[in-house]
Amino acid sequence: MDTLRALSEGVLPPAGNRIALSTAESNAVQSLFPDRVLSWTNSGTSALALALLAIRRDAPEVDQPEVIIPAYCCPDLVSAALYAGYTPVFSDLAKDRCHYDQEALKRALSERTLAVIAINFLGVAEPIKSLRVALNRPSVAIIEDNAQWFPSKPQVQTTAADYQTFSFGRGKPVNLLGGGLLVSSNDPPRQPGTAKGSALQRGLYYGKCMAYNTLLHPTMYQALARNPWLRLGETRYHEHTSIEAFPAGQAHLVRANIQTYWSHERRAEKSYRKHLAAINLLAPQIEASEERLLRYPLLLESRETRNALLHKLNERGLGATTLYSDTIDRVNDVPQQRLRQAGDNANAASFAQRFLTLPVHEGVKAHHIERTLTVIDCVVG
Ligand SMILES: Cc1ncc(COP(=O)(O)O)c(C=O)c1O
Questions:
Q1: Which terminus, N or C, of the chain has the lesser number of Cβ atoms within 10 Å?
Q2: How many whole angstroms separate alpha carbon 35 and alpha carbon 29?
Q3: How distant is the alpha carbon of residue 177 from its chain centre?
Q4: Cα 7 to middle of ligand 1, angstroms
Q5: Is the confidence at residue 333, as pLDDT, over 90?
Q6: How many CA atoms lie within 13 A of 82 on its CB side?
Q7: Hey, what domains does the chain have and what are their CATH numbers?
Q8: Which string of b and e fits 214-229 if b means at least 16 CB within 10 Å?
């Protein structure tokens, strides 16, 4: 009976708003960053790589440069660093936090450090000003990686970071199935521009968007999620091979999708912020800001509770994930010998074992929220 019910309810995707398919010419993004240079790329990884190339260009005296990344992060940071000719140096998180341990970060610095990548973690921003004070090295550039965040409203953005990057990839806040953006104060060494693209390519792209929108429905998505061969959502390293232009099809959809993103209700997010604060070790960080969350980040007391919860939620198709399953050096296919480990990673390793995400996208309905909270109540008490 339970199996039949689970099948009829389907599986919620962990992230992913539908793609709005109305086209418009737009400078919607430039108005968020009025005095900054915008460089549009084919992905968030390319935007990061471009920022790193710009930083290298400005410090030609440093050979074999290093960039510091968090010990728990997306392997695309490693891909971008290696592409741009850096050694990625991974540094621990603060205890029960999704951001750097600033003391560990200081110890990770070397004469070769040119940059630090600070992650906006699912909508929870790294405090850049305090990072800069801790670093106390004006020559080290800070890149704010916003792949998991986009401004919540049409308001001019300010930042203490030197570079900001964004992603328009699958499952990102403004989801165009691909694309990236670098925001900087100077021209980067390359300006990839916008690809022209033929009418056929654009037609195929819109077809892909329509198929994607259909697959987001829980009854459709379960065909993918319950198929063990597909290993959906598995974290894996991919080598980055080129920086390319922002695809033409995507360019016409930017405006509509930003506006759609801004118009989404935040029902699931608000409910989880309210009901899960008592059990979530990340609650103080989450509550420090009103920014939209891409997924609800939940850090539990123990690995056993996390695993039990993950199992029960996913048995019921409620879209929970561990995000990255382990610290960056242990992610599948990461070329470990090309990374440098700075100090121990005890906090990041413990974080990886106790962390999960809950979906908060537009497809999460009242009954999903209710069922999620019921399961959490049963498991965590
Ligand atoms: C924190 C972070 N940075 C960078 C990226 C890379 O973005 P893209 O997939 O557009 O290359 C991702 C992608 O998931 C990410 O989560």
A1: N
A2: 11
A3: 14
A4: 31
A5: yes
A6: 17
A7: 2-380 (3.40.640.10)
A8: eebebebbbeebeeee
Ligand 1 cavity residues, CB under 6 Å:
43-45, 74, 76-77, 119, 145, 147-148, 167, 169, 180
Q: Which residue puts its alpha carbon closest to atom 7 of ligand 1?
A: 44
Averaged pLDDT for residues 153-160: 93
75 alpha carbon – ligand 1 mean position (Å) = 8
pLDDT reported for residue 232: 73
Q: How confident is the model at residue 227 (pLDDT cuts 50, 70, 90)?
A: confident
- Quick one: pLDDT at residue 151? 96
How does pLDDT run across 29-63, given as a tens digit for each residue? 999 999 999 999 999 999 999 999 999 999 999 99
Find tokens 């600070």 and name the residue.
Answer: 118
> Which atom of ligand 1 is nearest the CA belonging to 48?
4
Q: What pairing do the DSSP bridges indicate for beta strands 295-299 and 180-184?
A: unpaired
- The predicted-structure confidence for 290-326, as pLDDT tens digits, reads as follows 999 999 999 999 999 999 999 999 999 999 999 998 9
Chain mean pLDDT for the chain: 94
**What number does the ligand 1 atom closest to the CA of 119 have?**
1
45 alpha carbon – ligand 1 mean position (Å):
6
- Which tokens in the block code for residue 144? 């704010």
Helix intervals (H) in the chain: 2-9, 44-57, 76-83, 102-108, 128-135, 199-215, 218-225, 248-251, 254-263, 267-275, 283-287, 303-315, 346-354, 366-380
Pocket-testing residue among 41, 67, 76, ligand 1, by greatest number of atoms within 8 A of Cβ: 76
> Measuring CA to CA, how many Å separate 237 from each of 77, 279, 350?
10, 32, 21
Question: Is residue 116 within 8 Å of 135, Cβ to Cβ?
Answer: yes
- How far apart, in whole angstroms, are the C-alpha atoms of residue 132 and residue 369? 39
